[in-house]
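Morning, I've got a small favour to ask if you have a moment. I've dropped the whole record in just underneath, so have a look.
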Amino acid sequence: MRKLFNEHLVEVNKEDHTFYLDFLPDFQIGSELIDSEKRTTWLNTRGLQAGLTIKDKFTFYANFFENQGVFPNYLDDYMNVNEVVPGQGTVENLSNHKKDWMYTTASLTYDFSDYFQVTLAYDKNHIGDGYRSMLLSDFSSNYTHLKFTGNIGNVQYTSIWAYMLDPKNPRRDSLNSGGRFGDGVKWGAFQYLDYNVNNRLSVGLFQSVIWSNANQAGHRGFDFNYVHPGALLRPVESTNSTSPDKMFMGLNAKYKVLKNATAYGQFLLGEFTAKEFFGGNGYAHNKWGAQLGVRGYDAFGVRNLNFLAEYNLARPYTYQHFVSISNYSNHGEPLAHPRGANFHEVLGIANYSWNRFDFSLQGVYSRFGTDPADGTNMGGDIFQSYSTLPNLHGNSIGQGVENNLYYADAKAAYVLNPKYNLRFEVGYTQRYRYIEDQAAQRSGVISVGLRSSFRNFYGDM
């Protein structure tokens, strides 16, 4: 009974080390109520996780999941086009809409002191205080990275070097023989400096640079100009007079407006021309995205009633580059917002917990533009080349084929074991997508399952 409801499956607690091991099931079955196909959806996931600490210096965590499933039509279409399960990795398509894939995470952290630690991981990162991140999000699949973190007083500094895959640009031989040489490779360097100004205000500065392992000029590999954690990326990148790299700068801030409520926001800047920016002419190369939100807890005096409201937007072409091998993506998915660019989005999330019962409600509205049937680059698909943009001026958010997305998700769960979030869950997801001059996409899935995971995978797109 203890193992089922209160403890890890295997748990060791010694003076100089700890260890735990768990079996993580994620079994769901559901039914499509609205889509004309009325398919039965299901998920069969068997996972393991293990964690180890040695004294106060060394921390290790790893998990592994073997998965099969059948998804609603809109997710099925996404996987068929992108050949990836959102945020998890490459998918194999089997008969009768069945998908098969694996997923793993690993992390090694060593604390040199109270001020400095280093992490080697195959995992994700998320910078910001919102549900989404316009700077660096946990939407795409895991990637190998090395991370340095330093803390001095009210300042925290993080520097990340990442090795990422790009299945949309696979490696080829000089004869293009069609052999199997693996996915394309890209590199990323990310810096984030966060300063707690006082007990209410925190301000963070963000920089990133993405570059391809190889391009038309040949093999490049890791650029050691970006290896120094103390050197700012933008000055280093600008010393290359014909730089082929994708550079971003950003701002992240939060302010505690009330005892139980915090406002937060982000601003991401890719390219900027002051005259065009303030001219209001829809200049294509003014590339930026923004976020504004508020989150709180114990809302209306109700204990454990938490909420979040958020607004996100990105101008057309923001995350594109002149070749997709160096755009802002990992494993065929965006490194920031799942929608890519050329969108407005409003979302809200509420969560209430009572004893071991947990209830959540999420709603999303998004208006975005997609490319027409002839493939004209309207700025939303980040894998297009921005050298193919049709108009230098007159661009606006939502241009192209107009899309309006309405998404709602409700869940009720009873937590059987909080150690590894084992819970019995009932949920309903409804999604309407209205596409200009096309038939609307409608989906409503009711599901029930035995779930165990702290993973956050995004199906609200």
Q: What stands out?
A: The two ends are 40 Å apart (CA to CA). The chain has a mean pLDDT of 92. The first strand starts at residue 10 and ends at 13.
